Amino acid sequence: MNPTAVKDYLLSLQQNIVATLEAYDGGTFIADRWERPAGGGGVSRVIEESALFERGGVLFSHVLGDAMPASATAHRPELAGRAWEAMGVSLVLHPKNPYIPTVHLNVRFFRAYADGVDDVFWFGGGMDLTPYYGFEEDAVHFHATCRDALAPSGEAYYPKFKAWCDRYFFLKHRNEARGIGGIFFDDLTELGFDGGFAMIRAVGDAFLPAYTTIVERRRELPWAERERDWQAYRRGRYVEFNLVWDRGTLFGLQSGGRTESILCSMPPSAKWRYDWQPPQGSEEERLLTDFLPIRDWLA
Question: Is Plastid among this UniProt entry's keywords (predicted)?
């Protein structure tokens, strides 16, 4: 096991993604370096109110603790009380143009220390797409890129992790998907350290090809107040998921993480309406009827 190699990769991934996004946007991500009193720290790279991105965060963290928080031991109660370390890159981009989807990426490594026995470790990650207007070719491209990234680890992983993503990024209180999914996995140990590390590298390296193709297709589409209003309304669902259901948000807050970085994933503006539905036959309704219901995009 070589956690240093994981950390080196994650830092290089953050730098590569930021440099590429800056080239697309023309703006600059600030670098906010921070330390955690309980141990560790990170670098938050953030852009706001720029040409392409209303808010974007590409965050690296490497944090340590003396006792694992409840969100990390929910499925492993035997690990409660152990010292631990976690490192990862987490990304959320909220574009200004409503025709460009919001996107999320996370790749991470977790290690629980043991006395007298082998340490317990696992990998996790994935990426998912949250469009405001549906484009079939974008959904197919995103899922095909996810499938191809996982293929070297085994053909069974894409359908397994696609289904996991569909289950995870689901607002149970609304009975509604957050977006069109992608892939999601956690607690990955079956491939060993080398195989798990290879998988998160493949997922991390696939992000830019998966997303920038969609940005290029949609960035010049004109929009007006109607599209922005719908975007703000749908962003409300994003906020609901992050605050109610997201394990990463809960872990960060429960472990004494840096609140500013944890909540940087939130959209800069959002709206809620009481018991409202878009007009019948509209493109807004089509998102709800044709894109949010779980489906096989590669059939």
Answer: no
Neighbours of 97 (CB within 10 A): 21
Cβ neighbourhood burial of 29 (10 Å; 0-12, 13-18, 19+): buried
DSSP summary character for residue 290? I
- Report residue 136 as tokens: 């079939």
The binding site for a divalent metal cation comprises 94, 104, 143, 173
Residue type, 184: F
Selected catalytic residue, list 62, 75, 104, 141: 104
Instruction: Quote the DSSP letter at residue 286.
Output: H
pLDDT range class, residue 253, cuts 50, 70, 90 = confident
pTM (2 decimals)? Answer: 0.91
Active site residue 62: no
Mutual orientation of helices 136-150 and 157-168 as an angle, nearest 10°?
130
- The Cβ of residue 32 has, within 10 Å, a number of other Cβ atoms equal to 16
261-292: pLDDT as tens digits: 778 889 999 999 999 999 999 999 999 999 99
Q: Point out the annotated binding site.
A: 90, 94, 104, 106-108, 143, 173, 256-258
In the annotated binding site for substrate, the residues are: 90, 106-108, 256-258
pLDDT digits (tens, 9 = 90+) for 217-248: 999 999 999 999 999 999 999 999 999 888 87
Residue ranges of the alpha helices (H) in the chain? 3-25, 70-73, 136-150, 157-168, 192-218, 225-244, 247-254, 259-262, 283-286
